[in-house]
Amino acid sequence: MEILRKIAVPVMAILAFLAVWEALVQINDWPNYVMASPSDLPAAYAQFWELFLVGSWQTLWRTVAGLGLAVVFGLLLGMVMGFSRIMRDALYPLLVGFNAIPKATLVPVLALLFIGQHDFNTVLMAFLISFFPIAVSVGIGLSTLEPEYRDILRSLGASRFTIFRKIALPKTLPEFFGALKVSVTLAFIGTNLVEIVSPHGRGLGALFLSAQTNSNYPLMFAVLIALAVLGIVLYYAVVALERIFAGWAERQAT
Amino acid sequence: MKNLIEIKGVRHAYKTRTGPLPVLDGLDISVPEGEFCAVVGPSGCGKSTLTRLVAGLMKPDEGEVWLDGKKVSSPRKTVGMAFQNPVLLEWRTILDNVILPLEIVAPSMPRRDRVVRAEELLEMVGLSGFEGKRPSELSGGMRQRASLCRAIVHKPSVLIMDEPFGALDNFTREDLWQTMRDLRAKEPFTAVLITHDLRESVFLGDQVVVLSGRPARTQYILDVDLPQDRTIDVLYAQKAADMLQTLRDQIKIAQGRDPEAA
Ligand SMILES: Nc1ncnc2c1ncn2[C@@H]1O[C@H](COP(=O)(O)OP(=O)(O)OP(=O)(O)O)[C@@H](O)[C@H]1O
Ligand SMILES: [Mg+2]
C-alpha cells in the first residue's frame, strides 16, 4: 500500500502536468513553433530514438565524470580547509569569487584553451561548476566537529588519518550528500551548457541545437523532456547512494 | 600502595586573544592504584583542563603528570575517557560503538573476541539486548552507560571522567552511581571523576579534591573513609552529612565567599 502510494502519487502528478500542458496548447491554439504539445512528442521520439540514446549516453557519462572529479577534488579541498585554519582563510575568498563567475563566460575561455577537445571541455565544465558545494560542506563539516569526538580517539593515540577515517568522514557524510544533490544538478547544467553553446557538440544539448537550427519544434521539446528525465534519474541515483551510506542520519532529521 | 596517578606542581595558562589566561596554578594530586579520585571546584576553574592534561591531550606549562611510573607527554593507550556528552557515533550500533577503542588499541584482536568483551560490559551495565540498536534509539541514561562501556572496553589503567552524569536526572544519576560502583568491583582501574555534585563525589570517591577558583590550586583534600561497597543509604548517615558539610564550606571558600556568613 505504502509503495503503491509512493509510485502512484508522483505518476499522477506528472500525468496532471502533461494534461494541463496539453490543454493550454489546445485552448490557446498555439502553433508548434510557439509551444509543442505532449501529443506531438511520441512522434519525435519514434523518429529520432537512436539520436536520443546516443545523446543521453554522452550527456550522462560526461556529467558523471565531471561530478566524479568534483567529488574527489571537493573532498580534498574540503579536508584541507577543514583541518587548517590558515588554508581556510586563504582559500575561502578565492573559492567564493570563482563560484560567483557566471559559468557561461567560461565556455569560450575553455574552448580557446583546449580547442577541439569537446569531451574534455564538457567534463571540465561539469567539474568546475559543481565542486564548490562539496568543498564548502565538507570543510564546514570537518571544522565544526565537536572536540570530544576527536578526543575519544586522540586520547588513545590514534593518528589524524585514523580519526578522519573513523569519525570525521562518516560524521560529515550527511552534509556531503546534501551538497552532492546540489552538485549533481549543477554538473548536469554545466554539461548541457557546453553541449548547447559549442558548435559540433555532442549529447542531448547538441540535439537540441540541431532541432532548433532545423526548426523542428516538437523535437526541441522532446529533448527538454528527455533532459528533465535524465536529471531526475541522476538526482535519485544520488538519493539512493545517500540512503545506503548515510541512511543512519535520516531519523535525526525529523 | 603505589600512586598510579601523580600530578605535581602543574601550572597551565591558555593563550587567548586578550593575553594568557592562567587556569591551573599549582596542582598536586596523587591517586593510589585502584582508587577513585573525585574532583570538585567552582565552574570554569579548570577541571576539564585537568582531564586533558592527565589524558596527555595537552602538555602543562609547568609541572609534571605521571601515570603508572611514566611521565605523560602524549596520549597513551592505557587511558579511557568519558564526557558529559556521551559522544556516541550515530552511524554505529551500540556494540560497534563500544568496540571502537579496541580497533585502535588492539588492531589484531579477532572480531569475535571484541564482541565477547563488549557484550560482557554491556551486560554489566544492564544493556543486554541493545547491542544492535543505534544510539538515537536509546535514552540519555542508556547512552551514558554505553559510553562508560566504551571508556573501559580496552581495560585502561586510568579512567578519566568529565562530569559523566551531569546531564542526567536525579534518579538515573543515582542508578549510574551504583552501576559505576559495581563496574569498579569487577574491572581494575584507577579513576579521576570530575563532578559538580558533592553527593556524587562522596558516594564514588575515595578522596575528594576541592579546587580553588580560577586559577585553580589544590585547596582541600577530603579522605572519604567509607567502605567501597557503599549503598545510597550511606549518604543519609551522619558521617556522610558531615563530609558534605565540609565540602560545601570548602566550595564556598573556593568561590571566594565566607563559609560562616551564609
Ligand atoms: N582551548 C581554550 N582556549 C582558551 N581558553 C580556554 C580553553 N579551554 C578552556 N578555556 C578557559 O579556561 C578556563 C577553564 O576551563 P575548563 O573547561 O577547564 O573549566 P571547567 O572547570 O571544566 O568548567 P566547567 O565547570 O564549566 O566544566 C575557562 O575560563 C575557559 O574559558
Ligand atoms: Mg568542564
UniProtKB/TrEMBL annotation, chain A:
Residues 56-242 form the ABC transmembrane type-1 domain. Keywords: Cell membrane, Membrane, Transmembrane, Transmembrane helix, Transport. The chain crosses the membrane at residues 60-83, 90-116, 122-145, 176-197, 217-241. It comes from the Bacteria. It is found in: Cell membrane. Belongs to the binding-protein-dependent transport system permease family. It is a multi-pass membrane protein. PANTHER family: ABC TRANSPORTER PERMEASE PROTEIN, ALKANE SULFONATE ABC TRANSPORTER-RELATED, MEMBRANE SUBUNIT. Gene3D superfamilies: MetI-like. This is ABC transporter permease. SUPFAM superfamilies: MetI-like. Pfam families: BPD_transp_1.
TrEMBL record, chain B:
InterPro entries: AAA+_ATPase, ABC_transporter-like_ATP-bd, ABC_transporter-like_CS, ABC_transporter_ATP-bind, P-loop_NTPase. Keywords: ATP-binding, Nucleotide-binding, Transport. It comes from the Bacteria. The keyword Transport applies. GO terms for molecular function: ATP binding. Gene3D superfamilies: P-loop containing nucleotide triphosphate hydrolases (3.40.50.300). It holds the Pfam family ABC_tran. Residues 5-238 form the ABC transporter domain. This is ABC transporter ATP-binding protein.
